[in-house]
Amino acid sequence: MKLIEDMVKAKEICVLATSDGNTPHTSLMNYFADHAVMKFYFLSPKTSKKNKNLKKNPHVSILIDRRDENITLSIEGVYSPIKKQQTIDAITKLFLLKSPHMKEFAEHPDTELIRIEGKSAELVQGFTDVFSTKLKNF
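Predicted structure:
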């Protein structure tokens, strides 16, 4: 479990996979994570394909990797809209501490903060060493 938390904390880019129910869609994304409860946050245009997919089908997959070490982490999660503006503002500030180059994008009126709650994780080292676990918040 420590390696999972370390990978989540150390990286800032992942692949987010969404689906409209029939067709998968992947996006390379900057992220901020609350690793203690495995909640992931992304910034996205409200009109993006991924955002539309999330509204139709809240189930996603997140891929974080260390390609140079042949380690991948796949997280199954669920989209969980954030309702309070105060929460959005606070998390966006934390997001920008990790990814300050996203400031202009974060402040654009068409940008939305997306929250994904991690449900389970699968850590693969090499080709055959697989560790699967349910995450704390589920």
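Summary: The longest helix spans residues 85-98.
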